[in-house]
Q: What sequence folds into this?
């Protein structure tokens, strides 16, 4: 395994470009495929790309906020103490890899946005304590937990079809989570991944001579508080705890009302609000909070510039019908026994071009549900096969790695050599779960 991971890392370091180059090449590939495999003309594809370019604008802002607010919260004194205490529970590189992976898996199963940020922040804190751990593998381990998210409590597809009046209710009805998230096959897959991925990551630890470490001083987030030379009414407000308390009470009251009236609805907006309100409260004063924001905002550049390009790709894939062509081609070779397996693989392919769970469901559901009806197989399992395919290939799709990479200060090529093996293992586990259960 050490030989294989060393080879994989060298290949990625040599050939995997910056995520922006990746998305630019992906854009050109989808353009060419759309012209070649659909009836769309080159001008049509240009229009589809331009019309879709801002289609993920709200989601882009949500991701910027989750990264920014999560980073700010983690730099607050109370959270730093908690992360520091947790990081102090491990003393060895192997224990560090196992703990980071487990924390990331559990957090991602609860909520993908929460897991994506907390995993990377916790890994960064551990790297300050265990200086002999391979930093690349540590961050890859934090990101590897993300593979489990669509089988968890915040899975967008199972939650969507459990909601009355969802777009495909006329075909499949309202599907309770007992048939999706809490079904036997899904729980078997989740438990198997919870056991095997930490062990795989531990197994991939490089030899001491190949280990890439990081100076703990480079991981410190230095927040500089600029004090005014003269005390003024404005500066007093910037150092006021009263304003912080009032805003925190306002936010916490709303959160309490939300969970009382809507149950455990931990959507991305609520996760962001939790991060923002706790960050304000834990930093104490507006001056401290804004200083932390200014320090964290530099990590958001990759998301801001790259997500619109993925929206353009999604526009070409959906409007041209290319996503349907790919899905139909893969599923056409299946039967009632292999249908869910090939649906999973089809979703994994489409996920490269439509890296949004909700968007992918909208594209693939009409095709897959019709095929499921013709073969007489389970609609709910079909939905979960798409969900798992959407989560699976995230392991080698830089789109979702951007927040973790921004927090860690790494590039995609630094971790993808390890993530390839997580992709292989999780693909085998999910395939066996869908086929035999």
A:
């Amino acid at each position: 395994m050490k030989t294989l991971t060393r080879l994989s890392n060298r290949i990625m370091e040599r050939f995997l470009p910056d995520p922006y180059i990746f998305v630019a090449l992906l854009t050109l590939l989808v353009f060419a495929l759309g012209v070649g495999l659909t009836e769309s003309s080159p001008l049509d594809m240009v229009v589809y790309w331009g019309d879709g370019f801002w289609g993920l604008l709200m989601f882009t802002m949500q991701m910027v906020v989750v990264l920014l607010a999560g980073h700010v919260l983690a730099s607050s004194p109370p959270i730093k103490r908690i992360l520091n205490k947790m990081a102090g529970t491990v003393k060895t590189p192997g224990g560090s890899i196992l703990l980071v992976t487990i924390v990331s898996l559990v957090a991602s199963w609860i909520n993908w946005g929460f897991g994506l940020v907390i995993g990377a922040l916790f890994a960064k804190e551990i790297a300050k304590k265990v200086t002999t751990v391979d930093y690349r593998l540590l961050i890859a381990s934090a990101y590897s937990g993300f593979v489990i998210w669509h089988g968890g409590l915040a899975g967008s597809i199972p939650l969507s079809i459990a909601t009355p009046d969802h777009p495909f209710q006329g075909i499949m009805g309202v599907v309770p989570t007992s048939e999706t998230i809490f079904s036997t096959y899904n729980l078997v897959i989740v438990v198997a991944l919870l056991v095997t991925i930490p062990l795989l990551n531990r197994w991939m630890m490089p030899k001491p001579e190949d280990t890439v470490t990081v100076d703990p001083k480079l991981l410190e987030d230095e927040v500089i508080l600029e004090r005014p030379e003269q005390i003024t009414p404005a500066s007093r407000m910037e150092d006021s705890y009263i304003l912080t308390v009032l805003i925190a009470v306002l936010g916490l009251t709303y959160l309490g009302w939300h969970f009382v009236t809507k149950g455990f609805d931990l959507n991305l907006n609520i996760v962001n609000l939790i991060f923002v309100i706790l960050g304000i409260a834990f930093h104490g004063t507006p001056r401290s909070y804004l200083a932390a924001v200014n320090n964290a905002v530099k990590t958001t550049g990759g998301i801001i510039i790259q997500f619109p390009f993925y929206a353009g790709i999604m526009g070409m894939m959906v409007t041209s019908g290319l996503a349907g062509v790919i899905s139909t081609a893969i599923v056409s070779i299946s039967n009632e026994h292999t249908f869910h397996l090939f649906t999973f693989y089809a979703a994994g392919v489409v996920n490269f071009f439509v890296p949004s769970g909700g968007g992918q469901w909208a594209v693939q559901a009409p095709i897959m549900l019709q095929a499921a009806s013709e073969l007489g197989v389970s609609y709910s399992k079909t939905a979960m096969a798409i969900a798992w395919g959407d989560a699976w290939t995230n392991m080698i799709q830089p789109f979702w790695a951007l927040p973790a990479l921004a927090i860690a200060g790494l590039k995609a090529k630094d971790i993808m050599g390890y993530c390839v093996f997580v992709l292989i293992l999780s693909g085998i586990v999910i395939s066996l779960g869908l086929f035999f259960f």
Observations:
- The mean pLDDT is 90.
